[in-house]
Amino acid sequence: RTAGFYTAQVWPGLRLVSLNMNFCSQANFWLLINSTDPAGQLQWLVGVLAAAEQAGEKVHIIGHIPPAHCLHSWSWNYYRIVSRFEGTIAAQFFGHTHVDEFEMFYDEETLTRPVSVAFVAPSVTTYINLNPGYRVYEVDGAYPGSSHAVLDHETFILNLTEANAPGAEPRWQRLYRAREAYGLPSAFPDDWDRLIRRFQDDERLFQRFWFLFHKGHPPREPCLAACKAALLCALRTGRSADPGLCQPLRPALPFPHIQALWRQRRLC
Q: Domain segments of the chain: what residues?
């Protein structure tokens, strides 16, 4: 009631945390007053996670704006929290960008060991050159000792070209299943990190991702060298404006150039 964030126990062993991402939005000019931890949300999150850790609970975090799209100070503090509670946070789910993507989180010491993934689901919202889409997650079930981790996910779309044909009926259809489409042995953070590295060398696989990124609508233009470098950098960057996360990638573009490319493709 005070600030729009809350927690609830889904069932024994699994806790849901819903964050109010308006408190990290780059478009919220009120945050010029306090951008570090508005409404004390992050301090509250630490308390919830610490209590969950003590109780042996796993936690799913949901929110609207993905962490890398947040204000710098909020994003970096959140990244630190995820790193600290990597054994408690079983999954993160966000939206906002309208496209199909994800953001990686790595250990703070080396920025090389994957600790978490923020899954960014596509939107039902219609946009030019985007189909409406939604995602269904398969999660480890409710049993003693469950990891409650994401095991797989599948995305469904409404093909607008087909739906607008004369006499056609709107028909939702499955676009893809993640592990099948990308050849993933599982859906843990390490698998998604390896996928980014495979994208660098497997151009066919990367262009498949570029197509699915647009929810099955043929992209307006191919994603070539600079675009690819920027997109892979975005996938590795779970916190705002951190050039260090993109250094292992090739080709190595100047980070300001990458940020400019990000701004061009963002819908929100």
A: 6-265
DSSP state of 219: P
62 and 90 in contact (C-beta within 8 Å)? no
Strands 89-94 and 6-11, sheet pairing: unpaired
Tokens found for residue 83: 């790193």
pLDDT reading at 102 higher than 80? yes
d(CA 266, CA 261): 9
Model confidence pLDDT, tens digit, residues 194-227: 999 999 999 999 999 999 999 998 888 889 888 8
User: What Rg do the C-alpha atoms of the chain give, in angstroms?
Assistant: 19
How many CB atoms are closer than 10 A to CB 256?
Answer: 9
- Which is nearest to 181 in space by CA: 160, 206, 162? 206
| Residue 120, SS3 per DSSP | strand
CA distance 73 to 59: 23
Q: Tell me which residue has tokens 């069932």.
A: 11
CA 62 to chain centre: 10
Q: What's the CA angle centered on 100, arms 99 and 105, to 5 degrees?
A: 115
Report yes or no: 15 and 59 within 8 Å, Cβ to Cβ: yes
- 49: tokens are 């996670």
The predicted-structure confidence for 28-53, as pLDDT tens digits, reads as follows: 999 988 888 999 999 999 999 999 99
What confidence score (pLDDT) does residue 122 get?
94
pLDDT (mean) for 143-149: 95
